[in-house]
Fold each of these.
Amino acid sequence: MDVDTVLLEADEKMSGAVLHTQQEFNTLNTGKANPNMVENLSVTVEAYGGSSMQIKEMAAVTTPDARTIQIQPWDKSVVKEIEKAIQTAKLGLNPLNDGSVIRIPIPELSGERRRELIKVAHNMAEEGRISIRHARKDALDQFKKMQKDSTITEDDLKRLEKDIQTETDNSIQKIGRELETKEKELKTI
């Protein structure tokens, strides 16, 4: 493996960690309807041979108002499976099924629930930061091996360590900014 490949892999892993953390933040109920809260949930559909699909792949997910998520499946036979997936996801949501459309009223958040969700967001952010640090460690280990094998010089190693640390810091800052935004959202709604 060459230096560019290691750098590219590290960058992809760090970007992936940031993206995953952002997606995790989107699942948090902020008291405001957001399709991201449910559209990536996996549903096992017996009608399709027991295959697993995301809600957004099998239904239109909309927010007709600030406190309601509406899911309109393209195939009415999967309504029950979608409803069950939402209930088992433990999102604190109670879907209402009228046979063809699922409506999910978003409850007002209590102060205590807001504090709990902020803690959950902090845990999600920490998991993202840990993933970024793992990517940094993997890259540094590979660079040290290259230096030991005389593929790169000690000066190259120092420069690459600095480059990887810069990328690590930038990725962690992105997660920090996302966390700050989510915290403000949870506190002010």
Amino acid sequence: MKAPTASSESASSYASLKALFEAQNEGALPGLSAIQTSLAECVQDNNETLELSSNIERRFGEIAEKAQAIGISSSELALELSASREQVQTMSNRAGEIAQALEGIQRISHQTNLLALNAAVEAASAGDAGAGFAVVASEVKTLSARTEDIVSSVSLLLQRLSESSRAAQKAIDRADEHGRSTSANLEDLNEAMQQTIEDNRDAVKKVARNNDRVFVNLAKLDHVVWKINTYLSVLRNKPVFKYVDYHNCRLGKWYYEGEGRQHFADTRSYGDLERPHALVHQGTKQAFGHLQEDGQLAELEAALELMEEGSRGVFAALDRILAERHPKE
């Protein structure tokens, strides 16, 4: 496409304007490329953050399960301690009953000892006739004494058993108190971890939502770079970049096989992006076909308008895709 030749002044103005637009478009490309690189790095960082958050959630879940298992064990231990307390109390009660029985035996032993003493006195009074009875009385007295000794020994053992029972009771009470405290702490810990997991999930959702915004804006930026290169080609009257179809440009790769397909293919409007994107490439291809041709200004303008029409559709489709991916709460 050649500049108009109405006058040298208009030709000079056209050349100056063309140089200005060319410089502006050419100057914008490095900045846009830098933004592209920065956004791509942000996406990579966000993906790594999402992976770390997923690992954190998994580990917290494992810890919560273990804490819950410990809590269950503590509860079971508390039940066993309660059963042991009852058994110790029962044993203590039985020891008390045995002590009472021993007291009865001891009273009988005292009475037997008194009877043996009286029998010995009566046998002595009877003289030779009471000699045999005196022997029996002596044996009864000896048996009574042994009974007293046995009762005393058993009473001492029962006393020690009672003391041990009380000590065991106190130990069980302390263990039960510690167990209940541990269960309460584990319950608090489990609630804290569950809350942390929920907070982490909310954070992951926000990072994922922002990441998707970056994905879409990166796709828009790739599209803008394509358009700037197209306009720069028109200003220079020759292609400044290699034309590829809409399947093989950056946006096309994003759409058909990259992050776009991975993150947005399940949205309702995802398929709406294909047609306007194809129009953009169709307009660029037609514009390239009219470069370096005289008298093709109208055709060139129509090609660029076709590209712009597709561009508007691309942006609208991308906005709908993002809105459907993350509807407003």
Amino acid sequence: MAKKRVKAIVKIQIPAGAATPAPPVGTALGPHGVAIMDFCKAYNAATEAQRGTIVPVEITIFEDRSFTFITKTPPTPVLIRDAVGIAKGATSPGKDQAGVLTQEQLTAIAETKLPDLNANDLDAARLQVAGTARSMGIKVAD
């Protein structure tokens, strides 16, 4: 059997379990001729357990207009905001402090994100998550 030829790879971030044909899904997939409702149904079924969070998805579109998709872990800032319990980071990250991230929370987020990070081990992942927290104006507790 011949391999299908890839036409495009599309990356978008959609709320889990709540994909609709409206933008950003429709505008991202429409030009490629993908059946948008088929994607929405498959994505919503795959992410129903994570409802309420943003889940990035990488959609591979083939020349025959079929598709496959891979869901990724939620973005690091979303996980940090949920752990700290805030709606957004500090308005002036270098001066203001929006919250405090404990070492336990830092480790839990790093373990969650490890498959999607370009880190070799948990310590490197923890450093990346801590850097993201600092850039959001969130203090990382010692």
